[in-house]
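Table S2 (text version). Query chain:
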Amino acid sequence: MELITIRDAFGRVTKKQKLSSTKSQEVIDQVGREIEQALGKIQAANDLTCPFDYKSLLTDLKLKLNAIDPLHQLEVSQKELNLNLSKYQKLLHNFFNPNISKAYRSVDFDFHIMNQIVASHFYREGLFDIGDSILNEAGEPEETELKSQFLELHKILGAVRVRNLEPALKWACANREKLKQNVLNLELKLNRLQFLEILEKGTQADALNYARTCLVPFSSLHMEEFQKLMGCLLWVGRLDSSPYSEITSPSHWENLAEELTRQFCSLLGQSYGSPLRVATAAGVEGLPTLLKLANVMAAKQQEWLAMKQLPVPVELGKEFQFHSIFVCPVSRDHGSEENPPMLMPCSHVLCKQSIMKLSKSGTRSFKCPYCPAETSVGQWRQLYF
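Corresponding structure-token output:
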């Protein structure tokens, strides 16, 4: 609803701006025409030998300009524009600059873990000095192993940016067995790009020798890809106009850097996305809901601060859905081994504890909270996600 209101306000400002611009141009054109006509009369009088009343001409011009009243016309249109623009600015300020401190809740967390998460974020970004400074100022032990691992990653990525694949190939070769577990063969991608680089900068013989040494081991499982690369040998110096021009696209290098980072983090047991970045983005997306809830519960500030669980769900995008979580629609509790989700005959799902409460510990049947169907003991089945 708020976004629709902002869109409508922006539309009004845009409309007033166009009207103001059109009106200004009309006024300028009117004044210009009157002045041009006066200049034309003066020019015509200069060509005549008889006397000409210039004072009368200027007086007449002044009267016409006063009748047009350009300043008043411009002020009116500009005032309407400024009024709508002022309302739009206030609306933006209220919507995008709320007092987010209202949504604050005191949550216990481990400062040691928090410091490590922040430092590891900067290590991921290649900002190693900042990561070290944070740990030093917090009095935390240095994450020497994690730092060295991400340092290796950024050395590899730095080389890839200048199209040097040697460090990446060396790393992929050292971790070949682990990388084989992935569906996408990273080592093949690296060797393919290296082959194309040799073909572009070297000779056909050099590229063929590299293919025999490094690409043949992949031919049995990736015959179609291998055949394409062999076909490239016939288009030396003309790959851009060949049937295989797609594999020379610069986007392959960009995708390779992303895939390298993803696989490197996977082997480290780390997520591809920075936990700090993901948590911050999720907090920003959920903040509007938290602010609305805080405003509704403004009169119950102590209750809001003491809550261990939010009374309403906070909807996040699919990018924040890493695994399935069941939340009971009745109790709002998360499903767990002790309190698993249970499927009822009507196909609605509740947590086991909610069902036990509704059925008086399984002693009687009860009506589903979401439909007229009744259910009794023995008709529930546990769901597994």
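Notes on Table S2: Strands lie at 341-343, 349-351, 366-367, 374-375, 381-382. The mean pLDDT is 83.
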